[in-house]
Amino acid sequence: MNIIETDKNALLVTPEGELDHHLAGKMRTEIDKKLGRGIINIIFDFSHLSFMDSSGIGMIMGRYKRIQKLGGRVIIAAPKPQVKRIIEMSGLLGIIQISPSVKQALRKL
Question: Phi first, then psi: what are they for 35, rounded to 5°?
């Protein structure tokens, strides 16, 4: 997992492989350390993610709630079809945008 601060007051979070209970907990901890100190947006780059379970959905929802309180946005960029399907089934699309690329996600902020 890679976390980079961008010039758009955002974190660019790039997990790889499977977003399961173990990785979701690690991501939650690392992201929460950075939120609020000028960081009000998160872009999840899911281009290298092959699988996500309910722990990943929960982690995204928790970060979304924190970002909303800061007045920011959460965008999921470049999910593979199998991950996008999980996002759609979870109902996240009702509150979180999907962007085809990180570059386009950054333009939305």
Answer: -70, 145
Q: Where are the alpha helices (DSSP H) in the chain?
A: 21-34, 54-70, 81-90, 102-108
**From the centroid of its chain, how far is CA 107?**
16
39 token code pair: 């960081």
Give the tens place of pLDDT for each residue, 5-30.
988 899 999 999 999 999 999 999 99
Q: Report d(CA 35, CA 26) in Å as an integer.
A: 15
Structural domains of the chain in order of their starting residue, each with its CATH number = 2-104 (3.30.750.24)
Helix (H, G, I), strand (E, B) or coil at 99: strand
Instruction: Quote the CA–CA distance of 39 and 16 in Å, as a whole number.
Output: 22
